[in-house]
Queue: 2 jobs
Job 1
Amino acid sequence: MGLLSVAIWLPIAVGALLLALGRDAYANTVRWVALIGALAGFLVTLPLISRFDVGTAAMQFQENLPWIERFNVSYRLGVDGLSMWFVPLTAFITVIVVISAWEVITERVYQYMGAFLILSGLMNGVFSALDGLLFYVFFEATLIPMYIIIGVWGGPNRVYAAFKFFLYTLLGSLLMLIALLYLYFKSGGSFDILAWHKLPLPLNAQTLLFFAFLAAFSVKVPMWPVHTWLPDAHVEAPTGGSVVLAAIMLKLGAYGFLRFSLPIAPDASREYAWFIIALSLIAVIYIGLVALVQRDMKKLVAYSSVAHMGFVTLGFFIFNELGVSGGLVQMISHGFVSGAMFLCIGVMYDRVHSREIAAYGGVVNTMPKFVGFAVFFAMANCGLPGTAGFVGEWMVILGTVQASFWLALLAATALISGAAYTLWMVKRVYFGDVTNHHVREMLDINSREFLMLALLAIATLGMGLYPKPFTDVMHVSVTELLKHVAMSKLN
């Protein structure tokens, strides 16, 4: 077993063990086993960072074993500069989620922890798979644990939200399956994704493939107008579910554009870039305004995620290095910042059992340590320089300026709307006088909550002050991808 296999199957094995052996009578033991499994899953991803060769665009840490030999399907794994950082990010967020649920989840603890650990391994599989069928299996399998997490531990409308989430993402993926089968036969019976990148496809075939992939990945991102499942899923999901959904699962769709749409259908990607750019700008501008009028904090941050992910797809289809690298950096930074924002809402919900902005006011008077963290993450969500939230958005805007000043001007309005809706929430929730007895009775964060927020604060600040390790890893791979797209256009 290589590092990537361990990163995939170790959390899945621990999660399956908890499902098989766990009982609520042993809830404390289950929590410790889950934490040890999540920490071990994170530690095995660290050599990916230390041993990664930033000077090559080739796949690294490759594994290739026969799986379904009759149909030439292999268990093939590998990461490059486009995917490497998402494996440790997934494992890191899983550790945070286990810590966040320590005292909050008291029923079916073994199922809750097991579902998240299994989900962690499956998401690592999506970022590592180099076989088309293997990718599809991992991509679809992630729906199952998240569907259960929302449907079992969610809010009053959890069943509706879980079904909506499942149906949207499943229906979108069916067209992708047809595209994968077409590529399989077109390549002479191979599911090798890297071989698909070299297929000389005519523009009409590329166009059909492009929109088939768009159907799957746009729902997952989610792009406007197929974003409507996300606010419902976030509002009903437990805190841990919202964190993983925002921090990792939205990135699966954006990653799909880089691994499938751009390299397999490069001519169609350029032909219809205007369409993706238009949808991205609508998400950035319109959804930012929608976030401004939200009364539910989770809905506000959910719409904020749609707007921020609009920057990602905008950067990818600008077709320059600053834009694509900025989109990747934005994916990573959004994982830290949005995850932290949902954790902060969860901390308050555990005390007051309300997500309504009107239910709070003057929280700083009773929870000063917590508000210090919450305001820091809110500033990062606004794109404050020095935080992770700034780096990716600024790179995308600079990349967009190279393509069109007016497009960049429209994208930059997100910095204004983002500050507006975030600071408006901060003012009403955290500052001013204490407005009700619920807030007056709130206790400041304990050591467990301090730890999870501190870890995310360090990551957010570290990436904001020194993004070089992230950009160095992706530089060569981004350059090669853009060269591949440009060469295809010339041919």
Note: Residues 217 and 256 are 6 Å apart (CA to CA).
Job 2
Amino acid sequence: MRHGCKVNHLSRTSAHRASLLSNMATSLIMHKRIETTLAKAKALRKYVEPLITKSKEDSTHQRRIVFSYLRDKDAVTELFREVSQKVADRPGGYTRILKLGRRLGDGAEMAMMELVDYNENMLKETVAKKAKTTRRGGKKKATETTETPKTEAKAEEVKTEATVEENKPATDDTTKTE
């Protein structure tokens, strides 16, 4: 029985599990997004988030601690140079798990795990969604900022058409009267 056991053993020995999580964490740091099973993604989240927190303080001691987990110099360099800069102001929750459905071969539930600050499309959507919705979740009514460019453009078109029409009949009338 697993009463109170918080570690998912993933049907592997401890050495195999440590190696698996180390390799997956390295891939996540290098590629910013990986596709795996849901159980592995949840286990990886508990493994990689403390490492990202350690990367916020760039010291030799922190680098050595992270290297003992990852065992890859390139991944440690990437983590401390690029990833730590993006997550500097974030207090936690550096990863996102998106469910993808079931795998055809064995029916395992698949998931995509990604670093939150590196998904530019989703960041744009969340900013747009926050701008469009009110606190209660409803959409805001049309604002003046969205209507003014349209009305200004229509007003300019009407002005240019009016000036063209005024100029043409005036020249046409003078030619007809002569």
Note: The longest strand covers residues 95-102.
